[in-house]
Every structure is written in structure tokens, then in C-alpha cells.
Amino acid sequence: MKIVILLGAPGSGKGTVAARLTAGDAALRHVSSGDLLRDAVRRRTSAGVEAEGYMKSGALVPDKIIAQMVGDLIAGLDAGETVLLDGFPRNTDQAATLDVTLAGCGGEISAVVQLEVPDEVIVERIAGRRSCPKCGAGYHVSFLPPKQEGVCDACGAELVTRKDDNPETVKNRLAVYREQTFPLVAFYGARDLVRKVDGLGYPDEVAERVRKVLP
Ligand code: AMP
């Protein structure tokens, strides 16, 4: 199993890029730790109930909760799959846990894609971000609007703004990214795995840049 880690601040486009790349390629699988957690919160599982407060404030949920979820999922995948890992690891302890999980199932990290987007663009992107609560499709009011305002193109559900996309929580999430997640650039840089990609532009353009650096 090959793992491609998508690394970037909240709003840098990790999920959007992953959705585009997986849409055209059955051998690629998108695994988003944020989606796993939001699903657990919706289903009111014990992990979801514990995670909810951390997510609302923009803090990271405890490592053991998310590492278990991602680890279980990865362990159940086929050896031939390539996984686009979006949102995990978020700190060096999680990165170490991922190494142990991969050693156990014969997987390897083949690249870490670092999406670079300036903070002011991030704030603008997050302010206009909308998502479908039913099928998970993502939109932006200016850069990626649905055909009919407020309605999902794919399934017709009413689009929502994520609870943690409010300005105060976003400020916190950006600080958490800088302090806890950004150090992973050096962590994986030491293994010569990091591929920097300009995250500015339309989703298709950014996805194409990412495709070019995939192993
Ligand atoms: P995301 O959808 O990746 O922006 O994640 C939304 C929220 O879920 C984050 O702000 C965290 O509270 C939580 N979360 C997602 N992934 C992780 C992770 N790997 N470790 C800890 N918390 C996470």
C-alpha cells in the first residue's frame, strides 16, 4: 500500500484536491480524518462524543482517538491501494504512530504533498466554504459555486457552513496548524519525501499540479 500525505493548513484545498484526483482514478482512495471524525460526531459514537468539543474549538482531538480510527481504516484496505491521506498526521506523535501502523501492514509513505497557500487567501476561502451534509461534496460561494445557490449539485441537499468555519475557530485552527502540524514539513523533509505545490488557483489547476508530483 502506498500512502500520499496531503499536508496543508485548513482551507489549503486538501479535500478538494483529493476529491478531484480520486474521481478519475479507481486505484486512489481518499481518507480524510476530519470526515471520519464528523461522521463519528453525527452518529454519536463514543469517540465522536469525545471529539466534538475539541473540534468546535479548533483544537486537535486526542491522538489516540484519531490514530485508532485511521489505523483501523488503513488496516482494512487492500495492499494494492494508494491512499491520499488528508488531515492525518497532524503532529509528530501521530506521524510516529502512522509509521508503526504502516510497518504492521507493509505500507509505505511515498510522498508528502505540501500545499502552499497564504493566510489571507485561506481566510477568504474558508469564509465562502459550503458543504453538503448528505454526500460530503464541497463548494465555495465564489470559486466553486453550485449550479443552484445553496443546493448540492450531486444530491440536491441544502448546503451548510461547517460549524468550525467561523472566524474565531479558524484563527485557532490556523495557530494549531502552525504550531503542531507545520513541523511535519521538517520531519518528512528529513526523509526527502516533501513535494511543495502552489495551492493558489482553481481546484482543477491545483489538482493537476498535485497529480504531476505523485509517485
Ligand atoms: P479537517 O476537516 O481536517 O479540517 O478537521 C476538522 C477538525 O477535526 C480539526 O480542526 C480537528 O479538531 C479534528 N481533526 C481532524 N484530523 C485530526 C487529526 N489528525 N488529529 C487531531 N484532530 C483532528
Can you give a write-up of this model?
This protein is α/β, with parallel strands linked by helices and about 220 residues long. The protein has 2 domains: about 1-115 and about 175-215, P-loop containing nucleotide triphosphate hydrolases (Rossmann fold), CATH 3.40.50.300; about 120-165, no CATH class. It has 9 helices and 7 strands. The strands form 2 sheets. A 5-stranded parallel beta sheet has the order 2-3-1-4-7, sandwiched between helices. Strands 5-6 form a two-stranded antiparallel ribbon. Helix 2 (about 35-40) crosses helix 3 and helix 4 packs parallel to helix 5 (about 90-105). The model has no long low-confidence stretch (mean pLDDT about 95). Adenosine monophosphate binds near residues 34, 55, 58, 61 and 94. Adenosine monophosphate (AMP) binds near residues 60, 87 and 88.
Task: Annotate the secondary structure layout.
Layout: E1 2-7, H1 14-23, E2 28-32, H2 33-42, H3 46-57, H4 63-75, E3 82-86, H5 92-105, E4 108-116, H6 119-127, E5 129-131, E6 138-140, H7 167-181, H8 183-189, E7 194-198, H9 203-213
Parallel strand pairs: 1-3, 1-4, 2-3, 4-7
Antiparallel strand pairs: 5-6
Helix pairs in contact: 1-9, 2-3, 4-5
Bound molecules: adenosine monophosphate.
